[in-house]
Amino acid sequence: MEISREEKSGISIFRMIGDININSAPNLKISFDAMAKPEGIKIILNLKNVDYVDSSGLATMVEILKSLRKCNGKLKLTNLSAKVRGLFEITKLTQLFDISDEEDEAVNSFERFEDS
């Protein structure tokens, strides 16, 4: 799995290419752990180029979410394929994660939240 990171409007956007599974999930966790996490940090995980997520990948994303909540951070997921979205629905993780269809929609929702 490849991971790239971009800052956009004060939001860290992680874009992944490849599967998030038992072999690659640790790399996602390492990338996340390596960054500074100031109070109120905002992160988007763009899963546009992720076709498969296994239980290790789901557990890693839940771990990241929990870690962010400790510093009042926010996490949004975006661009989930039908297959990956189905996995989140079956596991009821759609109730835990904020999921947007498009990256710009997720960025804008952070900005709307700040404006209100």
Tell me the structural class.
alpha/beta
Which word captures the global form? Answer: globular
CATH H level, superfamily name:
STAS domain
Tell me, rounded to a whole number, the average pLDDT.
92
Count the DSSP helices. Answer: 4
Residues in helix, %: 40-55%
Short description:
The chain is of the alpha/beta class and 116 residues long. It contains four helices and five strands. The radius of gyration is 13 Å and the shape is globular.
Please name the defining characteristics of this protein.
single chain, 116 residues, alpha/beta, Transcription Regulator spoIIAA, five-stranded mixed sheet, 4 helices
Walk me through what this model shows.
It is a single chain. This protein is of the alpha/beta class and 116 residues long. The protein has one domain: Transcription Regulator spoIIAA, CATH 3.30.750.24. It is 41% helix and 26% strand. It contains four helices and five strands, in the order ββαβαβαβα. It has a five-stranded mixed β-sheet. Helix 1 packs parallel to helix 2. The longest helix is centred in the middle third of the chain and has 16 residues. It is globular and about 30 Å long. The relative contact order is 0.18. The mean pLDDT is 92.
